[in-house]
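pasting AAA domain-containing protein for the record, 180 residues
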Amino acid sequence: MEPTLIVLRGNSGSGKTSIVEAIRQAHGHGVAWIEQDYIRRIIFQELDQPDGANIQAIRQLAQQALDRGYHAVVEGIMPKIRYGDMLLQLRNDHAGPSYFYYLDIPLEETVRRHATRPKATAFTAEEMATWYHGTDLLGEPRETVIDQTSSLEMTVKRILTETGLGPAAQFQVGDHDGLA
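structre below
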């Protein structure tokens, strides 16, 4: 199977991390996870700003993974105004299949989900509200919109099926792939 690019965008608390973890668990080895927050906040210690160093680093890491035969999942809030051009360039530079998803989850639901996470005390609902972008679709490339009615399991099965990364039929949230 040729390397597949998956871009997963959405607000904080929309389920991006859980989805990527489940995709990797279901597929097994060979899926590179390029996480915007980690690259921006940990590697570069920068604020989300125009022309931030993380923007091209994300593109370069994803391209490197794809060039080396890995499927690449690029995940983050990645507002269109700052990341849209880079994501379009990444899609245009990749000769293989590309899939773009946007998790369109209302602020109230993202706050509720955040409260259940281990890092719930890392930031407040008020801080989340200042980061919230509402529906922030790229336009080009076109994104599949997934709303709050889609459970984690439904969303993961959908992505596994649409991208061909299966085995979606056997996947259940909580399955373990043997990695310790």
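Residues 175-180 have pLDDT under 50 and may be disordered.
Helices lie at 16-27, 36-43, 53-67, 80-93, 107-114, 125-131, 152-163.
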